Amino acid sequence: MKIGVLTSGGDAPGMNAAIRAVVRQADALGHEVWGIHQGYQGLLEGDMAPLPSRACANILQRGGTILHTARCAEFYFAEHRVLAAAKLKATGIEALVVIGGDGSFRAAEALQREHGVACAGIPGTIDNDLPGTERTLGFDTALNTAVEAIDRIRDTASSHGRLFLVEVMGRASGMLAVHTALACGAEAVLYPESPDDSYEALVSRLNSNWLRGKRSSIVVVAEGDTTGRAMAVGERLKRDHGLDLRVVVLGHVQRGGSPSAIDRIWGSRWGCEAVRRLDRGERGFYLGEVAGALVAQPLSRILEPQPVPPGDLGRLVSVLAR
Ligand code: F6P
């Protein structure tokens, strides 16, 4: 069998581990792998080539994706998916491993449903916001990157007795923000799914901290929080309360860097599992982790509206910041 592999959407540390595992497990089972460059964009342009085992040497520890990635708006339109299916057919690719997040899996689901392309998904996004899995590639690394950065900010915050607002990624999800806040001992966290997330609640929290003698605070703000981006919240606090605060936007720093051991291990496990399942004739699934176990979900599950709230961790942040 000829198996295509692509990475799509925002890159995430651990994607290279998954690519390597797909290639080497396929090799072990006698299948050939083709690398599709720049995600679905490359598929539309026919930008693909054989990806031999040796081409995956020394990539396990590298961040980013050796296949490059793209956000491909054309793929939302059925006529472009017709073209993509034709490119796969012309190359003789019978199965496709897609490493990416929600949008990438939706595209794979459509490709399989409309054109019968056998698709397998490996979750790769630092946002960790997919239903049916407690982990996605890149989340653990991004979390550790954010924690390391905020530990440094904490030193200067406490020296100057200042408030810092630190924005972490997560367009529609507070997963990264809440876990970061908990791991850093942040005084507050603003995130989209929070039940009591408001500017007024933040001000009252900061006030009571001040009355308790706290002279410096870290507030972690998820990029997609409804109160606003960190810069806007900071400006408002300065205007309303004259605070000498600073804003740090961690941004794409969180997307880069060498993957953590956890991300390498899950990238490797999921890459091997995807190929083994395709080898057994399974189609239309994506892999995940639930309670430490490797699980598979039907690809169609991605279509169900299922918010992935970060649970009770947000509340713990305020309890612990006393
Ligand atoms: O989807 C992952 C993610 O890092 C989000 O957290 C963020 O909002 C987005 O990608 C940024 O995308 P881009 O790199 O295209 O600006």
From TrEMBL:
Annotated binding of ADP, by residue: R20, A21, V22, V23, R24, R154, G185, A186, E187, R212, K214, R215, S216
Recorded catalytic activity of this chain's protein: beta-D-fructose 6-phosphate + ATP = beta-D-fructose 1,6-bisphosphate + ADP + H(+)
Stated regulation of activity: Allosterically activated by ADP and other diphosphonucleosides, and allosterically inhibited by phosphoenolpyruvate.
BP terms from Gene Ontology: canonical glycolysis; fructose 1,6-bisphosphate metabolic process; fructose 6-phosphate metabolic process
Alphabetical UniProt keywords: Allosteric enzyme, ATP-binding, Cytoplasm, Glycolysis, Kinase, Magnesium, Metal-binding, Nucleotide-binding, Transferase
List of residues binding substrate: T125, I126, D127, R162, M169, G170, R171, E223, R246, H252, V253, Q254, R255
Domain of life: Bacteria
Active site per the UniProt annotation: D127
InterPro entries: ATP_PFK (IPR022953), ATP_PFK_prok-type (IPR012003), PFKA_ATP_prok (IPR012828), Phosphofructokinase_CS (IPR015912), Phosphofructokinase_dom (IPR000023), PKF_sf (IPR035966)
EC number: 2.7.1.11
SUPFAM superfamilies from the UniProt entry: Phosphofructokinase
Binding site residues for ATP: G10, R71, C72, G101, D102, G103, S104
UniProt binding sites for Mg(2+): D102
Domain Phosphofructokinase: 2-276
Transmembrane stretches, start-end: none
Family that this chain belongs to: Belongs to the phosphofructokinase type A (PFKA) family. ATP-dependent PFK group I subfamily. Prokaryotic clade 'B1' sub-subfamily.
Function: Catalyzes the phosphorylation of D-fructose 6-phosphate to fructose 1,6-bisphosphate by ATP, the first committing step of glycolysis.
Name of the featured protein: ATP-dependent 6-phosphofructokinase
Protein's gene: pfkA
